[in-house]
Design goal:
This protein is 23% helix and 32% strand. The chain has 462 residues and is α+β, with helices and mostly antiparallel strands. The protein has two domains: 210 residues, no CATH class; 230 residues, no CATH class. The strands form eight sheets. Strands 1, 5, 9, 10, 11 and 12 form a six-stranded antiparallel sheet that branches. It has a six-stranded antiparallel sheet with strand order 19-25-13-26-27-28, with helices on one face. Strand 22 and strand 23 form a beta hairpin. The longest helix has 18 residues. The chain is globular, with a radius of gyration of 26 Å. The N and C termini lie far apart (58 Å).
């Protein structure tokens, strides 16, 4: 057996990298506790009760970024690998990160039946989230071997992706949760080939270089490619009112209050359009469009939004190709409305059925704006065409633009209607802009290409 002291990794230097990771949207880092009164409780430090970001979660996200922007071989080489009886240790050590005393939010989730458009039985759950603005001091130690700087390139690319908000953490990332950024870095470098450098590493006494860009600090140029897929940014005006219920209101609040969430820089919780609610409405309308055209609606929606179990089906679950952001509703008016149930036989008020609601309302002079941000990833197989997927998504956007697709609850009484103002669509090197103009539409870009996408969906067969 070879003595352990002879298994030297031939290190040239060590880097200790720290940064302040700030959550921009609510994030769920779960603990997997099945005995909690909540369905999905948060992971907290058992000693101090502070928010905890496991090093394994952050390391997995960084590894995935290296796979995406470099290759899986590079990720295995520097983040470690296990193959049969052989394993290789990681050259990048990621510590657990403690946050602040947690400010939390509770969200309700429910599955809606595509046939009845009502809540499915036994499909309601609640989730505990870390509020946006929560800060973690993350720390990594990078071991750099002699005559090989590839690990530094991998670290620079992964941390640049984290710095630019391209990496998300926790559960339901494709529905707007887990968005984060790192505005500043601190880097200490230790020369492991000299006694002075080794002594400084043991004492943690090296001066730190700091700055907003990790690539500049490391001296490695990084240029990340644009995200692949179709992106849609739409601005819509709220007509009437919108109500996405939040059951966790304050004392003496109305019975039903529109969903509010904390955001960095805001004085208090602000009304939001949740990504989960928007994605559910888009999925239901996509299925309806496909069924109307004589297609398999379940197959087409599973293709875009991921496989879902219908009834007694047992499908292999897949992730959604459509990323849906959670956005803040701009310039809303919040008023309380009292409602009462009417007894249809006597024409009077139904006993015990008086309730109050506080939706967000659209203003008349200054429009209340709702933002919709979507990203559709390319298909997972190279031979699979994306033009038909884009066509289906454009038809759904048209219904949202023309007030035909309501969002939120109580659509039957007129809530949730939106009217399109502006949309920017980008795919590859093509860009289109759609604006409301003189009672019609003004389209910048090749209009025939948009029509070809729709036609591709109409003619496509799965």
């Amino acid at each position: 057996m070879i003595p352990q002291w002879k298994n030297s990794r031939n290190l040239r230097e060590r880097l200790v990298i720290e940064g302040d990771l700030i959550l921009e949207t609510p994030t769920h880092l779960g603990n997997g506790d099945a005995d909690s009164p909540l369905d999905m409780p948060l992971l907290l430090d058992p000693l101090e009760g502070k928010a905890l970001l496991p090093g394994s979660s952050l390391a997995g996200a960084l590894r995935a970024a290296v796979c995406l922007y470099l290759s899986e071989d590079v990720a295995r080489r520097w983040f470690g690998s296990v193959s049969g009886t052989h394993s290789q240790e990681s050259f990048i050590l990621v510590d657990d990160a403690l946050g602040e005393e947690p400010k939390t939010e509770l969200r309700d989730g429910v599955a809606i039946s595509p046939k009845t458009r009502t809540a499915e039985e036994r499909r309601k759950f609640d989730m505990e989230l870390l509020a946006a603005g929560t800060c973690f001091r993350v720390r990594l130690e990078v071991l750099v071997p002699k005559e090989n700087d590839e690990v530094l390139q991998a670290v620079a690319i992964a941390l640049t992706a984290l710095e630019q908000g391209r990496i998300r953490l926790g559960k339901r990332k494709r529905r707007g949760f887990g968005r984060c950024k790192v505005p500043r870095w601190w880097v200490k470098r230790y020369d492991m080939q000299t006694p002075a450098g080794l002594k400084a590493w043991l004492e943690d006494s090296a001066p730190a270089a700091e700055g907003p860009h990790i690539a500049d600090i490391l001296g490695i140029p990084v240029s990340l490619p644009p995200q692949k897929g179709l992106s849609i940014h739409a601005v819509l005006a709220l007509q009437g009112s919108l109500l996405i219920r939040s059951d966790f209101g304050e004392a003496n609040a109305p019975d039903f209050v529109h969903l509010h969430s904390r955001r960095p820089g805001a004085e208090g919780p602000v009304p939001v359009l949740s990504g989960t609610s928007l994605a559910g409405a888009l999925r239901a309308r996509a299925m309806r469009i496909a069924n109307t055209l004589g297609k398999d609606g379940e197959a087409w929606t599973d293709r875009l939004f991921g496989n879902r179990q219908y009834g007694k089906q047992r499908k292999k679950l897949t992730t959604s190709r459509l990323w849906v952001e959670e956005t803040v509703i701009e310039n809303p008016l919040e008023l309380v409305q009292s409602r009462v149930k009417i007894d249809r036989f006597i024409g009077g008020a139904f006993p015990g059925a008086l309730f109050s609601e506080q939706p967000v309302w659209g203003k008349l002079k200054e429009e209340t704006l709702v933002y919709v941000d979507l990203l559709l990833e390319p298909p997972y197989t190279q031979n699979d065409r994306m033009e038909a997927d884009i066509g289906l998504l454009l038809l759904v956007l048209k219904d949202l633009w023309t007030s035909d697709l309501p969002l939120g609850g109580e659509a039957s009484v007129g809530r949730g209607r939106l009217h399109g103002k502006y949309a920017q669509i980008a795919w590859g090197d093509q860009t289109w802009e759609i604006r409301e103009a003189d009672g019609g539409l003004s389209v910048t870009g090749d209009k025939t290409s948009l029509e070809k996408f729709v036609q591709a969906f109409v003619e496509a067969k799965l």
